[in-house]
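=== Structural record ===
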Amino acid sequence: MTTILLNILLGLYSALCVTFLVSMVQSIRSDRKRARRDEEREARDKEYHEKRMRDFK
């Protein structure tokens, strides 16, 4: 009986650890994608602003 309970608890703990690890990896990936999108957007905005200032003069 004790062995079965121990195996169940270890299985649940392992599943929890795997879930936490997958969640961390997904969070890191989304943060990197968001940072890259923000950098690209800022570069486009700066380019657009510079073009508008040249056209304004």
